[in-house]
Automatic annotation (TrEMBL):
Protein name as annotated: Integrase catalytic domain-containing protein
InterPro entries cross-referenced by the UniProt entry: Integrase_cat-core, RNaseH-like_sf, RNaseH_sf, Transposase_IS3/IS150/IS904
Signal peptide start-end: none
Domain of life: Bacteria
Disordered as annotated region, ranges: 95-115
Domain Integrase catalytic positions: 112-278
Length: 284
């Protein structure tokens, strides 16, 4: 239609209706096209100005996405649309490269036959919802052989520092009962356990391996401890905040180690088994 409009300008003596008949197009379509020429030129000029404005903003803020560019355009009085900017950036291939988080290589889960040597100590974190403080996390450390709850510490968030602090407290408690100096730390593949500080400390005291809940000798042992904590203490006493939970954890650790009987320990308490092991080591 645009080519016909240009061609029609070369025949000023021919009526528009006659020209439309000769060109084989509907008269009303050609007429409406010519009448809207001024509006189209205005829209085209507005589009060119908008594109120039967006290119200027891209040069000033090369890392901004289309939303931030739209906010800047609004501040400067431009009336371009947010999704128009998005479409134009994509068309001109001006979208900034998306940030890609570098993922650590996946740690392989080894079977029990391939675990490194050392006394097995497990650590895990479980989430507890408190009425006043919301979600908090309880790190628990367990000696697999005696089932001693070595540490039970609550924090407002997961972090490698909190995991490392809990592990150090647990190992320090275990050394009161046993003479082992090499430990095999077992955990899942959480980022707090695969972090560099946590891994470095595991190498200092022995080694670390990733375990699954379902595998033999895996994290199912500690998951049972987490369940006991919730059903025997947290759900019964209903702590309201982090301070009350920390006080309850001290009572839980004492009760679990000195009163709760374990079928896997021939219905003895963890502390009784740890004391027997200590006597054997002392007599040897």
């Amino acid at each position: 239609m645009g080519e016909l409009a240009v061609l029609y300008q070369n025949y000023p003596t021919v009526t528009l209706r006659h020209f439309a008949r000769l060109a084989g197009v509907a008269y009303h379509r050609l007429r409406d096209f010519l009448r809207g020429e001024r509006q189209r030129q205005a829209r085209q000029q507005k589009k060119i100005e908008a594109q120039s404005h967006v290119l200027q903003l891209v040069g000033q803020h090369p890392t901004f996405g289309y939303r931030k560019l739209y906010q800047q355009a609004v501040k400067m009085g431009s009336k371009v649309g947010e999704h128009w900017i998005r479409h134009y950036l994509r068309q001109q291939k001006l979208n900034p490269a998306p940030h890609r988080k570098r993922r650590k290589p996946k740690v392989e889960t080894l079977p029990e036959s391939k675990w490194p040597q050392g006394r097995r100590v497990q650590i895990d974190a479980t989430m507890i919802q408190l009425p006043q403080d919301g979600k908090v996390w309880v790190y628990q450390v367990l000696d697999v052989k005696t089932r001693l709850c070595l540490a039970s510490m609550a924090f407002p968030q997961l972090s490698s520092f909190n995991a490392l602090q809990s592990l150090k407290a647990g190992i320090s408690e275990l050394k009161k009962y046993v003479s082992d100096n090499t430990f095999l730390i077992q955990s899942d593949g959480g980022s707090d356990f695969t972090s560099a500080p946590f891994q470095a400390h595991c190498k200092e005291i022995g080694d670390w391996t990733r375990c699954r809940t379902s595998q033999k000798g895996g994290m199912g042992i500690l998951e049972r401890l987490n369940r006991t904590l919730k059903y025997e203490m947290v759900f019964r006493h209903d702590p309201q905040n982090l301070a009350e939970l920390k006080a309850l954890l001290q009572k839980f650790q004492l009760w679990y180690n000195t009163e709760r009987l374990h079928a896997s320990l021939e219905y003895q308490t963890p502390l009784q088994v740890a004391a027997q092991e200590g006597k054997i080591l002392l007599s040897a």
